[in-house]
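SEQUENCE-TO-STRUCTURE ENTRY
===========================
Question of interest: how does this chain fold, as expressed in backbone structure tokens?
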Amino acid sequence: MAASNQTQTQTLDLEQNEEFDYSKRSQWLRAAVLGANDGLVSTASLMMGVGAVKHAMKVMILTGFAGLVAGACSMAIGEFVSVYSQLDIEYAQMKRDQKRPGAAAAAEDGGGENDKEGLPNPLQAAAASALAFSVGAMVPLLAASFISEYRVRIGAVVAAVSVALVVFGWLGAALGGAPVVRSSARVLIGGWMAMAVTFGLTKLIGSRGL
């Protein structure tokens, strides 16, 4: 009986250890997934918009590359500022908590060190965001780099971006423990809408010679 109880206890402990708090992934997951989606959608939309009035492959590639560099820098700076602001707020909260009664005893038990280890890292978040944006932006760039025919090039960009949107949506949902199909569909439809609106408005303006 004792051996059976011990086995059940070990099984319960193992199951508890296997349970993962997906919220712990929120910081880097948010930066990575949003960065990749932004890089993919914004660069593809930019290339589609320019491609609506300029059919040359070189123009589309240069436009996409400029969007990649500018977007990666913007994402990195924005993420750094955002996370650093969050870090300042949490540090201020920690200082207020240290002034409360019983804070000294908690610090001696190692509670203060654990709190500091859980704080967000601005540089890590900025690097992850810039890298993810660049990875996403490379998809439409590579899809358009080797196709000289305009219509085929546009179709290749749309097809490559669609596949990547589904993959990124599935990856973000799987890592975050969210519904996979719903997340992938939402990301895919959003990307299609962004490309369609950009292409249509640029085509309309370009056709009127503005």
Remarks:
- The chain has a mean pLDDT of 79.
- The chain has one domain: 26-207.
- The helical segments are 2-18, 26-51, 57-98, 103-108, 111-117, 122-144, 150-176, 180-207.
- The longest helix spans residues 57-98.
